[in-house]
Amino acid sequence: MIHISIKKKLTMAEGDGWLSIDTSVEKGQLWAISGKSGAGKTSFLRIVAGLLKPETGRILSGNEVWLDTTRKISLPVQKRKIGFVFQDLALFPHMTVFQNLRYALKGKQNQDVIHDLLKMVDLERFADSKPDRLSVGQRQRVAIIRALAGRPELLLLDEPFSALDAEMRRHLREDILRLHQTFGLTTLLVTHDLGDMYTLADRVLVIDKGLVVKSGPPKEVFETDDSSGMVRLQGEIIQIRDNGVVFIAEVLTGDTVIKLLISEGEKNCLRPGMKVLVCSGSFEPVIKVLG
Amino acid sequence: MQFQPIWLSLELALVTTIILMIIGVPLASLLAFRSFRFKSVAEAVISLPLVLPPSVLGFYLLVIFSPHNFVGHLLQSWFNIRLVFSFPGLVVGSIIYSLPFMVHPLQAGLQSLPANLKEASYTLGKNRWQTLFGVLLPNIKPAILTGVVLTFAHTIGEFGVVLMIGGSLPGKTKVASIAIYEAVESLEYGNAHIYSIVLLLISFFILLLTYKLNKKLFKPASS
Question: Distance from A37 to chain B by nearest Cα, in Å?
Fold first, then answer.
């Protein structure tokens, strides 16, 4: 069990505010942290990792105290048993894939683990390549196995799926889930994507303006009674057109643009750029604003 | 005509560059990553040799290291070191004089790296020194090369500081730039020409080599 209770002053999009989170993650679980940009998701991961100091807080991993501001304890990042995957990956450009992984080994750890990890994500043939020779998806996988090479207990992933297309995203999800289970990890994953949350997460934590606004299994958090049993698509409104007779909202979901007839009332509520959930049952589709 | 002053210049530049590498790396990393009280003061002191006439620096060093004054007396009586009019004195003067030429490129290089590289190394369990030598320095090779070359070239070209603190003792403190000055003073234009052309060629080829190396070895890397 990892108990996290922290308060940190943050400068957010809406001005200064507090990131205030109090939660306990069970060992072996995979949690998705969701919320708008600037809501405090990355800061939360960085505080757990020990890269950012909160004003007050306590973090316990099992019986180990990682942070206790009242007792002035703050275990340095190097001593916390974590693996961190940065949004920009932070692979060391001067090292090959193999060297990147070897750098991550602890003390006298056997180098065989590097080959095992490369094998698990099917990157053995790239061991001697520099990161700039790899595709985005391959780099992403290197960053993840590098974070695991030192055998951490807690894996922290900061939006690992951004910049991936749908196909690569699916592959990476499978890899993450497999690694999470194989290594018996506890994982915190920052993501915006409903698909990631549904397929990966045991629990979702939605943060808004520094506070947890929703928490629970993905089904509970994102499903409401009136839309259960329907097909749900998450997307973004890219355009609303008035063709003289009806209003048409164009919603981008994945790689597809869906055109929906909307009423004048709906047209007044919706704006391009809004994140929406399109639900379609047997009859007419329903469109809802997310977040 | 003696070539000793040229050898002495090269020796001085080499020793200064090596010592400044050792001092410059931790100093640059301190200035690049840590904030502390009086940081601006430290930065201003390091940059002073850029704007100060070398004679001013040389004069103060001469005064400070004179055995008649506290520091000079201390060095002489405790360690039997005499810095005025000696080669070690030239080295100390050159280190101070060329300090910004080593520290500034290194500091700028370190600051230009994405912060995540350093943090990624920390999350992999590595301490500050392991991170500095294992990740950060290998990624600022062009900046290191610039620092080394500028320091070397600047030390070869120094005149005022060397003259003030070292005088012109043949074989000890008479470096090439001073030999040129003396040759001109005693109307030996031929010697002045030879010293000058040798210095010019050395400086030119060092810079040429640097630009070639920078282009060849260090293509911009991306993660």
Answer: 19
